[in-house]
Design a protein that fits this description.
Layout (H helix, E strand, L loop, with lengths): L1 H52 L12 H7 L9 H17 L1
């Protein structure tokens, strides 16, 4: 009976590890596609703004995920400029409407 239980536990552990790996890969792929969509939306909105104003604008910095922010830790740049914060909020609102 102990051998059967040990074998079953080993199979469960193996299955759990495989499923965890598959889910991790799936979410990484989804994240990659979502970031691509956001980048495209940002580029479209920036181009429209450039066409409307006649001025050139640089791309926004990439959006960081919570786990990426933890990796950066104390070196994370904080946007202090009020204009930059307002632009970021306006971009986020507009991008959400496009998605």
């Amino acid at each position: 009976v102990d051998k059967g239980l040990a074998t079953t536990l080993q199979k469960l552990e193996t299955t759990c590890q495989l499923e965890t790996q598959m889910l991790t890969e799936e979410f990484a792929e989804r994240r990659k596609r979502l970031v691509s969509r956001w980048s495209l939306a940002e580029a479209i909105l920036r181009k429209r703004l450039e066409n409307d104003t006649g001025e050139a604008y640089g791309a926004l910095p990439p959006i960081l995920w919570d786990d990426e922010k933890q990796e950066i830790g104390e070196h994370e740049e904080v946007i202090d400029d009020e204009l930059a914060r307002d632009a970021r909020m306006a971009y986020d609102a507009s991008a959400l409407n496009m998605i």
